[in-house]
Design brief:
heterodimer, A: 114 residues, mainly beta, four-stranded antiparallel beta sheet, 0% helix, globular, B: 112 residues, five-stranded antiparallel beta sheet, 11 strands
């Protein structure tokens, strides 16, 4: 069974704080993704990584950065949290060849920025 | 480039059928279907790769038309457990398929 874990289910931070969200997978998947999900807006891709130390911007990268130092771990960083970054954050992984392989999602982190 | 899902929402009584569509203006390499229950992460249902393909398990099946521009998800004799939001995710070509492009989702509610 693929396991994708995220560091927190719920997180409350203050405006301006630096926030780290971590995702760990145990299935040796090449690709890892960070999405945010807001009502009515579906799944929006923030960043993804297809190899260690490799990253690509998704559709909404502004205000975020990522780090992938090890294959199993993909971190999302909010450099200076703002209230409009309050959202559900989902990490997902897949084998290389995203089109033909299912994505496995972590349980999500609900982040509130006050 | 974002696929269009229809309908946006549907309400069923237990035992009724539903069809959810996912359409693209371009030919697709693949279509994925996922279901997300409230407060949970999306869960994979199936992938379609070939034009004209049909797939299914239990009473949930999907098709991919010959032109590979539309996929439909069929829910037959719906159960309460089918409630949730259904998303399609698409890739446009085999050579550049590192990420999925998602539809906005279809909310399905099954009532007793």
């Amino acid at each position: 069974d693929v396991k994708v874990t995220q560091s927190s289910r719920y997180l409350v931070k203050r405006t301006g704080e630096k926030v780290f969200l971590e995702c760990v997978q145990d299935m040796d998947h090449e690709n890892m993704f960070w999405y945010r999900q807001d009502p009515g807006l579906g799944l929006r891709l923030i960043y993804f990584s297809y190899d260690v130390k490799m990253k690509e911007k998704g559709d909404i990268p502004e205000g975020y950065s990522v780090s992938r130092e090890k294959k199993e771990r993909f971190s999302l960083i909010l450099e200076s949290a703002s209230t409009n970054q309050t959202s559900m954050y989902l990490c997902a992984t897949t084998l290389a060849g995203t089109g033909r392989n299912e994505q496995f999602f972590g349980p999500g982190t609900r982040l509130t920025v006050l | 480039q974002q696929p269009v899902q229809s309908p946006q929402a549907v309400i069923l009584r237990e035992g009724e059928d539903a069809v959810i569509n996912c359409s693209s203006s371009k030919a697709l390499y693949s279509v994925h279907w996922y279901r997300q229950k409230h407060g949970e992460a999306p869960v994979f249902l199936m992938i379609l790769l070939k034009g004209g393909e049909q797939k299914g398990h239990d009473k949930i099946s999907a098709s991919f038309n010959e032109k590979k521009q539309q996929s439909s998800l069929y829910l037959t004799a719906s159960q309460l457990s089918y409630s949730g939001t259904y998303f399609c995710g698409t890739t446009v070509n085999a050579g550049n398929n590192r990420k999925l492009i998602w539809g906005l989702g279809t909310s399905l509610a099954v009532n007793p």
